[in-house]
Amino acid sequence: MSYKNTKKSSKGSPRSSKQGGRSGARMNAKSTKQQKPDFTKAAKPVKVKKPKKTAADSEHTQVIQWYPGHMTKTKRRIEKDLKLVDAVAEIIDARIPISSRNPDIASLTTGKPRIVLLNKCDMADRSSTAKWVEYLRSENVRAIPVDCKSGRGVDKFVPVLSELLSKRIESYKAKGMINPTMRVMIVGIPNVGKSTFINRISKKNKAVSADRPGVTRGNQWFTVAKGFEMLDTPGVLWPKFEDQTVGERLAFTGAIKSDVMDTELLAVRLLDLLKELDTPEFKERYKLSDDDLKMQSYELLELIAKHRGMLISGGEPDTERAAYTLLDEFRAAKLGRVTLELP
Ligand SMILES: Nc1nc2c(ncn2[C@@H]2O[C@H](COP(=O)(O)OP(=O)(O)OP(=O)(O)O)[C@@H](O)[C@H]2O)c(=O)[nH]1
Ligand SMILES: [Mg+2]
User: Domain range spanning residue 108?
Assistant: First the structure.
């Protein structure tokens, strides 16, 4: 994996270590460590069936290594910087709300007011996003669906946050602080849209964002609205996962680079899901009939390569090229709005 640890220092944090004591005193570090994540545990297993074994499986053992060393440091820094903030906003991917929810974050941030943003909902199935919002609310998690690309839903954030922090603001005022500034840490997996969210909410393009994981390398503070400052952080993943499908889904959506795994096998796994989801965009784009969807996924990948004219010398289908194309087009939502995980 080609992540590099290029930047280590926090930029322009408005609170010195002295100031950090203000919130630090309120943080219960012990209970933070012992708490279990909330809804990820309660969430039922995904309703999408597990990918079936295919011919390609027998030839490949897919071991996904995605936890580069600098992420351990990032996690430690999050623990440290939590002392500086009044609230935490966790951004998750509306297409994979289970797999994109870092199980460490809920426990790391225990005791802090928290909002979950279901981002990229322009690429997720509308009714599934509504179910997720409802589910999270039933778990007492304040959730807001957003589309940071167009900005839809972003304006709901400050009012919800103000409500969540109203007691805190009042108590600062009671202590004599006029117009206290609330500081919010933005956390989430790589490439989920943390920096884009900050740019949207502040109506400025100051946070660097790009469509690849690992863009933000160090913490950076931004003034985003009157009385609110936000800390942009590098994306964090967790070191272990019990379920291999979590890693695959993170790769489908671009949270981890696909070059850490076999692209053809990843595409075969994605096809297993796309066959079941059966969106008109998917069939139309690759000129597939209902009968074609009954094929084994590797054969289907070969057919997609043929339909796209992707051939290697001798006229054989170029399945590797087709695999890259399929993944790219899925990530760009050209195969329809899909949610891979349901509550
Ligand atoms: N379609 C769509 N794309 C989005 C949305 N939000 C962000 N993006 C895109 O997702 C990509 C990643 O955005 P970033 O803001 O760089 O993500 P990040 O979480 O800061 O990523 P790291 O800094 O690498 O952890 C960019 O290409 C954004 O344009 C959204 O709501 N919808
Ligand atoms: Mg970023």
Answer: 17-45+65-232
